[in-house]
Amino acid sequence: MNESSGHGIFHIRPLVAVFIIFFFTGIISCNNDTSEQAQSPVKKSVINSIENANQFNEILEKSKKRLLVLDFYADWCPPCKELEPILEKIAKEKGDTVTIYKVNVDRNRELSNSFRITGIPHVTFFKNKKNVYSLTGLYPKNMYLKVIEKFAETGTS
Q1: With CB atoms counted within 10 Å of each terminal CB, which end of the chain scores lower, N or C?
Q2: Domain assignment present for 111
């Protein structure tokens, strides 16, 4: 008797059927993996955002002698994205002497224009409510640390 007679297109050999069952079971189990390893951790940034000029003014008034750092950035800017983890590390390492904020130039044009931001990333340093230093462009981590050390340790520099 011919093996394919009477069964048509739906005739499946047992080995193929087992393979198909294991294949789809594997796909389903991968998609529904709720183990701790499969869950991506939510990163909480140590850098807060400034949303408007009023918020900036309040922060500046409350800063007293603390060094403030403002990172003017845009979501579409590749160097800004490279700078973000650098500033995150600095915020964690130097959190006792400096507070870092980020300002999105596209959503906060008023504040960006008040600082005459013409290029990003643009990092501005404030001490005693005054703009004491600015860097435009992407620099190595130690450049930001040098500026922080210069102004964070002294009273007015």
Answers
A1: N
A2: yes
Please, where are the H alpha helices in 9-140?
A: 14-31, 53-62, 78-93, 109-114
Mean pLDDT per block of 10 residues along the chain (157 residues) reads 52 54 45 42 74 92 91 96 96 93 94 91 94 96 95 63
CA-to-CA separations, 130 to 1, 57, 79, in angstroms, rounded: 95, 12, 26
Domain span holding position 72: 48-152
DSSP 106-143: TT-HHHHHHTT--SSSEEEEEETTEEEEEEES---HHH
Question: What pTM did the predictor assign?
Answer: 0.69
- 30 catalytic residue (yes or no): no
Structural domain count of the chain? 1
Per the domain annotation, does 35 fall within a domain?
Answer: no
Residue from 67, 68, 80, 111 carrying the catalytic annotation: 80
